[in-house]
Structures are given as C-alpha cells and as structure tokens.
Amino acid sequence: MQQYVNLKINNVPVRAAKGVSVLDAAISNAICIPHLCHIPGLSDIGACRLCIVENIEDGRAKITASCTLLVQEGMVVFSDTDRVTKLRRNIAELLVAQAPNSKAIQDIAVRCGVTEVRYPFRNGDCILCGRCVRFCNEQARANALGFIGRGKDRHVDHPPGSLSAYCKNCNACIQFCPMSVTPCGGPMKKGEERLCGQCESQLSMTKDLPGVCVWCELGKSFQCSRYLAV
Amino acid sequence: MPKLKSYSDLEALHKRFLEDKKSSGLTLIIPDGTCCRASGSTEVIAELKKELAIQGRKEDIRMRTTGCHGFCEQEPIILIEPGNIFYCRVTPEDVKDIVSSAIKNGAVIDRLLYTDPVSGKKVMTEAEIPFYRAQDRQLLAFNKLVDPRSIKDYIAIGGYGALTKTLSGIKHDRVIDEIRVSGLRGRGGGGFPTGRKWTECAEAPGEEKYIICNADEGDPGAYMDRCLLEANPHLVIEGMIIGAYAVGAHKGYIYVRREYPLAVVYARLAIQQCREYGLLGENILGTSFSFDIDIGRGGGAFVCGESTALMASLEGKAGEPRAKDTHTVKEGLWNNPTVLNNVETWANVPLIIMDGAKRFASKGTKGSKGTKIFALTGQVKNTGLVEVAMGTSLNSLVFDIGGGAKNGRAIKAVQTGGPSGGCLPVSKFNLPVDFDALFDAGSMMGSGGMVVMDERTCMVDVARYFLNFLQDESCGKCVPCRLGIDRMLEIVTDITEGRGRPDQINLLYELAETISETALCGLGKTAPNPVLSTLRYFSEEYVAHVEKKSCPAGVCKALITYSINADKCNGCGVCLRSCPHDAITGRKKKTHVINAQLCRRCGICIGECNFEAITAI
Amino acid sequence: MFTATIDTILEGRRSQPHQLVEVLIDLQDAYGYLSEEALQTVAKELGVSLINVYSVAHFYKAFSLEPRGKNMITICTGTACHVRGSDLLIDQAKGQLKVEPGKTTEDGLFTLECVNCVGACALGPVVIHNEKYNHHVSPGKLRKMIDKTGDGKKKEKEHA
Predict the structure, then answer these.
(1) Do the Cβ atoms of C58 and A150 come within 8 Å?
(2) What are the structural domain ranges in chain B?
(3) Which chains have 3+ CB pairs within 8 A of C?
(4) Chain B: nearest CA to A175, how far in angstroms?
(5) 0.90 cut: is pTM over it?
(6) Residues C129, C72: contact at Cβ < 8 Å?
(7) Which of C59, C81, C107 lies at the terminal end of a domain, its last residue?
(8) Coil, strand, or helix at residue B205?
(9) Pairing of strands B210-215, B251-256
(10) What is the ipTM for the molecules in this complex?
C-alpha cells in the first residue's frame, strides 16, 4: 500500500509518495527546481548542488540538496528565496566558467540567473556530473565507466584495456552528457569564451525566474527531469 | 593465558601485576613512539640494553619503553623512577654514565638535566619542569606507566576496572546517562555531545549496531591520536567496549590512517591480547555481552576523517562522503546505526566511568568539560603534546607551556582546527580553549592541532597553503568544493604572486559564503575558514600584497628580494659556493652581492650563512 | 613468487568486496606498487568490477600504479613543517630531481612524494629518506642528502 505525505514547496501544498525526493515531488507538481546531475531512475548523489532548497526545521532554514532529501509529513521547503537563488546562481557561474563550450551549461547558467562571469574561463570538457557513470553502472550495467582520481584530478575513464570488452554501445553516455550539446554558435575559440545568455531571452531579461515549469527550451537542452520523465 | 571468566579473576590479576611492578627496583623509562624514534630513541635503547648487560645491572634496573611523554622538543628522554629524574636530549654516548650513576637516591648527571630557560638553572625532576607543571595530564600521565605492548602494565595500574564496574552493575542507559552528565563532547573537532550521540544510536531501530574509533587524524600538524594509540591502546579499547555495551553494538572498528604504521601494530597487538584474556570476543568477563574489534586502515585521504567517507572506506569503496540528511547514528556503516567517535573521546570514557561524571565535569568551562590534548608546534620553543583543562587561555598554552617564541622573533598568530579552523592573532590569546569561544572568534577547537606562527609567517601564504591542501584532498564530487576551492586558490595565488586586485577580495567573501552553505560535506563547508579568519584578523597583509605588491613577512617569492647586508657580510664566500644558480658574486673578504635576476629565492644561502647577513624582504 | 604472495593476501578475503582497500594496502606494501595484472586478479577474486578497483586505487594516495624509484624522498607538508619552510624544500627537490611530487625520475633512482603530515611536528621540517626520518632539514641539507644518494657530482665553485 503506497503511503503518501503532505508537504509544502514554495507555499504550494504537495502530496507525494513516501520515499520520493523533494526534487521529484516538485517536478511532478510542475514546480521548477534547476538541476543537472539528477536523472529519473538513477541514484541521486547530490553532486551538482544546483537543486538546493531551504528546509525549515525547528524554525531554522537549512540549505540542502533536494534530490537527496526525502519527503516527510509536514515538511516546509523553499526553492525560490533570495538566499537560495543567489547561492544557486553562484554555483551555476562556477560551472559555466569551467565549461562554457556547452549549450546545456550555458542554458543552466541563464536559467539560474547568471549575468556575468567573474572568473577566467577555462575550456573544460567535463563537469563531472556523473550522469554517464551512473547510467553505465546502474542501468546498462556495463561497468565501462567510472570516476578516477580525486579533487582536481578527478575525471571519467574506462577500465584499462579494450573498451569494447565492457561497452554495450548503448550510447546513453553520449545522449545524457551535457557537453555533447554544442552551443548554437559553434565551439568558442580559445580565449574567446564567454557567457552567451541568448537563449530564452525573456528569462534573462526579466528579473524573475519562473518557479512554475514553462517547458522551456533550456530544460530541453540539458534534458531536465520533466522532459525525461515524459 | 586462560580467559578471565569473572570480575574477581581480573581483580586477582590486577593485584598480582601490581605487586610485580612495586617489587622492581629502579626503572628507566624511555619514550619510543614514532617521533621519539625519529629523534634517535632506537639507538639509545639498543645502547641501554647492551650497557645494562655489561655493567651487570639487569637484575636491579628495569627498562620500560613507552609511548610519547609529550616533550618532543627534548627527545630522546630517559626518566628514572623512583625519583622522577628527567634526562633530556640523551645520546647513545651518555648511556654508560646513566647506568653507572643509576642507584636509588643516587647521583644525578647534571649535564643531562633540563635547563629552565627563564632562570637558567638545572631542573632535576619532571614534575618541576614548567612545561609539565602548567599542564593537567589526566590522560597523558598514564603514558609513562605502561609499555604499550603489555596488557599486564595496563591491568596493574587498574586497567579494565571501569569495564568491570560497568558490566557488573550499571545498566546500558545509566552508562549513557553518566557520559551525558559528564558533558563530554567529541574530541575529533565536531564537539558533538557524546551522550546525545550514544542515546540516538541506542534508540535507533536495528539489531546490528557498530562502534567506530576514528583514528584517521588527517589535520596536518596534529598527532595526539597517534600518540594515544601508540602509548596506551588499551585505554582506547576499554572505552570502546564500554560504549559498545551502552548502545548495544557487538562489532567495532578502529580506523587508522596509513601514515601511522606503529599505531596499527600496537593496536593490533592490544586487540590480540584482549581476545586472549577474554576482554574481547564472546561472553566478556563471563557476562552475556559479546563484542569484538577489527582494524581498518586508511589509504591516504584526509577526507576519510569525515564520518560517511570513513564508513565508505571501511566498506571497500572510495572515500566519498554522502549526503547526510539522515545521520550516521541511525544509518551508518552498511546503513546500520553506528557510533563514530574520536580516539581521545574514547580514551576519556573509562575515566568518566571510574571516577564519575561529576569529577570530569568539575574541570573546564560551562560548555566544554574535561581536558584536551593539543599538539603545540610551529615557531614556539617547547613543541610537543600538551594536555590542559578546557578553559585554559591561549596565552598560557603558547607562553607558559610553549615557552614563547623560538628564535626570539615576535609571535603573530596561533592556528587551530587544521584546514577547517582559523588563525587567531595575539590580541585574542586571552581566549580560553573552549568549543564555543573559539568558534565565535572565527576559528575552532578542531582535533587539537595548534600551530604557532611568528612574524616570518605570511598569513596570505597560510591561506594559500590550506586551500592547496584542501584542493588536493577534496574528493571532487560536488561543484562548490571542487570548483569553488579551486577558484579561491586561484585568487589567493594571484595575490601571493603580485597579481591581486581589490575586487577579488569581495569575490573571495562571496565564494566563501557559497561554499560553506552549499558544499556536500564538512570538508567543503569549512574550507573557507582559513581564508575568512586571515581576512578578518590580518587584512593589512592582504592589503600589502594587493595594493603595494609586497610581502611584509618576506615569504612570497614573487614579491621579495634576497639581499646581503654589507654590515654583516665578511666575505667568507660560503653563500657563493652553495648557491645552485650562480647568483652570488664577490671577492674574498669583501661584501658579496646577489644578482636579483638570477636569484630564485631557494633559501639555501640564508641557511648556510653563519652571520645572518642575508635577508628576504 | 608473485602469485604466491597475492594468494596469501587474498586468503580469507575472496568474494568479500568490502576488503578491497585492505587488500590493496597489503599489495602495495608487498610489491611497492599495484600492477595491472594484480588489479585484474583482485577484481576477479573479490567480485568487484574492474573500474571500481581502479577507482579505489586512484582515489587513495597510498597507492602507486607505477613502480617506485630505488630511493624514496618524502617531504612532510604539514602545517608545522610548512611554517618552518617545507615549501622551500619542495622547490629544492623539484629543481634538483626535475620531477613533480608523486613521480619518479627518468633514471629510476628517485621517487619524490609529499605527505600531509607524518606526525613528527616537533622536529620539522621533516624529510623521510628511505624510511629514515630526518629532522630540521634545510634546502641545503636536502641538496646534500640527494647528492650523496645519487651519483651527482658536487660543483666546486671559486670566488670571482
């Protein structure tokens, strides 16, 4: 027998099944919380930290990732406060400064309200979201990909030897990778990396970021959960 | 050795071993921990064994090798009991004289005694040495009484008496009550109330529960836990057994970092002995309580000091922390309720049970009870391990115990809490060592590392050092830590290399706020602390680096030049010969000159010059 | 024999994935590094995917996937050693050996490592040279230590 709980997200009453995450509950109720490393059906690891929310407990607001926070009866959660919006914007800024040559990352930056990038751009080719690794290990069960190294050296790699010994050629890793979508203007030249911000211009022009899902093109580009769940 | 089947068995053993100990004549006690060995204790011990045989003193003089006595600066040490005679900086050549003169109430070798730096006089006994006198060595005092390889020594001094008291008449929840009333807070850095942690675990649903001793001690500059495990492993084990009984666990682990091989050896030996004596395993001391311990080793990762990462490592995985919305007391090792406590926390448990919570709580401040061991190191005269009651001021630690500045330079700051902590200036040295007082001041107690810094330490460089450390040790999973620390390091490196801009300081603050609020684990969340505390108390150094492109402490290579002081240089040429970059020229007996273009500020010439004629400004 | 030792290490641990870190530590201690062959055997015998074995082997600093040099120079980079000048020691070692920390010289004579605190803080700066602890090391002392070990010839310089 499926048990349900009642909680409030951004003052909207939500009824969700026990055991689901706050992020899942929000998305299924058309409340938009930006996210990146989350893919429905795969484990949630809370790596990108974009889906952060304020969880009100004992009168105090605790910042936590909504993908690893399970729904509970009476929970009160906010994803649209000034504090959370600012923090999310800063995280998105770090991401786009690291890997500007991806339409998906550029779109996330716009969706999170980034208007300037205060760090020197680096042309990184992987933002270590782990989507490929988790799909390969949990769904395809090929164990062909994994995280190697720690901290700055962390990267995705396959076991030594021939990749074909493990890979099942399902191409899911390429499909889910945010870096596989090139920015519409094509790859930027070295030294000319920039914040694009052209897509969904109405989002970047208005100060208010939509809290309700508007089936934006941005979400399509980075394959937000709502699109994947369809 | 037949297993102990009851409390009276243990009591009988205690009496017997104590008699053995008392009947010995003179005992020469030599600390032989890892850093004692680094100072040469192994050679002294070997010489001592030989000399005792040669002089025929093997019957009336006993030798006991122990763990660290704390006064590391003066190693190798030999302590003679009875008499409490303290010989320091002993060399193998001194051993012959020591053995010859060692008779009860006998002669004392003056040249080997400690010299009080203030009075200039020789001090005969350990108890009179200011370094020891100013401490409150509740835990460390046991170190000289036991050879860590001997369970007999431990039982002789009353070891496992607290366990007996617990199993013979204190119910589980009463044990937890006692710990709660004592006010004991985690000694690993978090300062979480131990009683509360044990209560939550005991009440958590689940039949399978675990006890873990966190001996990962990753804070650079901290070695208190290594010392406790190397010197008195049984004290820690006794604490764990009592804790297991209290919460209902039957399996425990001591997780020791790889860099402590001797601690692993002694802990393993102690566990083996406990199993032989029936103090670990099935039906401990004849009761229905069963508990056993295994050692888990770290693979070299600071992040494994974090509880979820440690547990991942024990489970055979990479030490990546996981989101902790449900605490590990409820879902820990293999998702079972787990109590994880630091080595020093466990070591305090037998004393609390034996002497009572009230006695423990009579020391310290309102919010921080008992004593704390600190590793006092850096630019201070008396470096070593010290134990003081909570509430003791930093002044007392640095000056009364530490003896003040090494090299006669001015002390500038003290760093506590490792990479999660902060730097406090001299104006804050009146602060007590207290969890909340240090936290409010922008630092934290941490595990006990206390590094003293003087005027030749650049505080911006210290911030850079910690960021570099954290970037190296970050597991890399979450964005704020992996990318955020990287960008903070980028900015601070710019500042130390003369490329700093004022707007970068604001960016540092904003990054600090973002990382501390959004990082997944404690490593990330506290990563900005060293930067924030140095900005708070040493902003003038940041200003000098950013606006004047100078490093007042003379450390940041890009901003300093080495030059030879003509008044002090006598033209001996030592620097010229030792310079690997051919940057020094000069005639014999004439002032030498450093070519700034060729000089790489490697520091060799400064080290070689006997006249302190070379400075870095 | 190689296979004999790895057998001893795996004894009692087969099909127990949680023993992975312990097994790798024992292998590292026994052979000085983790070879591809050893890691494949471990994956098979413990029942862990090969990529996971590599993930763990690369995560922890204790493990080296390349054979180490004849001589180990380990510089302590703990806070206490840092304020006493360990940075200068690292620069000295890097410049003299022409390798980055963690790597081995081309001639296989030296491996340079940095360790975040060996717990001998009172004696800093500390350099461990082939398991021997050296205390209060200066850049000059380190230079001589390396020179004496390798076959480096000391340069004799004259006054100008």
Answers:
(1) yes
(2) 24-134, 159-361, 371-454, 459-547, 561-616
(3) A, B
(4) 21
(5) yes
(6) yes
(7) C59
(8) coil
(9) parallel
(10) 0.94
